[in-house]
Amino acid sequence: MKKEYKTLLKQASWEEEVKKSRFIAYVKPVETEEEANEFIGTIKKRNKDARHNVPVFVLGQGQEIQRYSDDGEPSGTAGVPILEMIKNMELTNLAVVVTRWFGGIKLGTGGLVRAYTHVVQKAFEEAGIASKTLLSMFAVKIDYSMHGKIQNFLYDSKYILEKTEFDENVHMFIYARPEDADEFKKNIMNITN
Question: Rounded to whole angstroms, how far apart are CA atoms 40 and 54?
Answer without folding.
Answer: 9
